[in-house]
Amino acid sequence: MAQLLPNLERGVGDVVSRRAVTAAMAMTELTTQELLNMRFTQAAILAAAFLFSSHAFADGDAAAGQKAFSRCASCHATQAGKNGIGPSLAGIVGRSSGTAAGYSYSNAMKNVHLIWDATTLDKYLANPQGVVHGTKMFINVSDPSARGNIIAYLSTLK
């Protein structure tokens, strides 16, 4: 509308007074401010949703996660330095991807440079190939509750 106002003022100078054009421009500025306020509010809501969603993983049940981890144990050990088909998951939370000592990672995992926090682990466990195309891991955990519990359990491993 602000782009049309100069044209309106020129094209119908006798019909639309400068005062009406100025009033219309003032309304446009108010609308712009309201839009900025709405954008800020939306951004704040999205940020809060992100922060609270990442805390949901930390609220998982570690005991239930240890049970759910049994399906992972055929490939992954929980003792430091003991690698199997997959790397040891001892100390995984906070570790950089592709860095467990003594494990032969895929090039994809070596070069992706992720930090294994609750959010990254959740995305990876839901769809390993989608997060790290070319990873050796081929099993996913589709249930969000089970993922949260497994992540809570992994957080206890040092």
The level-1 CATH class of the largest domain: Mainly Alpha
Helix segment tally: 7
Low-confidence regions:
1-15, 49-56
| Protein structure class | mainly alpha
Shape descriptor: extended
Order of helices and strands: HHHHHHH
Radius of gyration: 27 Å
The CATH architecture of the largest domain: Orthogonal Bundle
CATH superfamily of the largest domain: Cytochrome c-like domain
In CATH terms, what is the fold-level topology of the largest domain? Answer: Cytochrome Bc1 Complex, Chain D, domain 2
Q: What fraction of residues sit in β-strands?
A: under 5%
How many structural domains? 2
Percent of residues in helices comes to 55-70%
Kindly, what is the distance between the CA atoms of the first and last residues, rounded to a whole number of angstroms?
61 Å
Major sheet summary line: none
Mean pLDDT equals 81
Number of strands: 0
Using brief descriptors, characterize the structure shown.
158 residues; mainly alpha; Cytochrome Bc1 Complex, Chain D, domain 2; disordered N terminus
Your description of this structure?
- The protein has 158 residues and is mostly helical.
- It has helices at residues 4-11, 18-58, 62-68, 107-112, 118-126, 128-131, 144-156.
- The longest helix is centred in the first third of the chain and has 41 residues, at 18-58.
- Mean pLDDT is 81; it is low at 1-15 and 49-56.
SSE diagram, text form:
Layout: H1 4-11, H2 18-58, H3 62-68, H4 107-112, H5 118-126, H6 128-131, H7 144-156
Helix pairs in contact: 1-2, 3-7, 5-7
